[in-house]
Amino acid sequence: MKSILINMTSLRLSLLFSIVLIIGIPSAWGQGDKDATKQLVGTWMLTRHTTVMDGQLTEHLTGAQDYFFEFFKDGTYVAHYNDKDEGDTKNEGKWRVIDNGKAISFYDNNPESPGEFPDYEVNILGLTDEELIMEEYLFVDDPIGKSYYQKK
Length: 152
What we know:
- By secondary structure, the chain is α+β, with helices and mostly antiparallel strands.
- Helix content is 24%, strand content 48%.
- The chain contains two helices and nine strands, in the order ααβββββββββ.
- It has helices spanning 2-29, 33-40, and strands at 42-53, 56-59, 65-71, 76-83, 87-98, 103-111, 120-127, 131-136, 145-151.
- It has an eight-stranded antiparallel β-barrel with strand order 1-3-4-5-6-7-8-9.
- The N and C termini lie far apart (67 Å).
């Protein structure tokens, strides 16, 4: 009788452990590289870029600028920067999501303007089907800022 009770208790614990694994592990994985990659494919328009300079939150995007990324399924991208005063520039290259969906690596970059454009990575601070928030250098060299993009 005692061995039957031990076996039943063991069976219950195994069943409970299996349920916890089935329910708990997918939510613990978080945003993986494949999920983030699927969400990023498309066109993302910059709506806001901020930095903290001298203790003050500073906005850098003006009405004279349009900046957007096009991420393609084949792992290529195009970054467009249109400035009504300075003209348009474009950068093309390859991209991939890394660090379990927490960063984007840009590599094999081919800028439209002359000069070397090194490989770089940006941290993803937030990603939904409609909004992308990245930590990146944009408009100013220092400090790093937050860029807010909306999917088109």
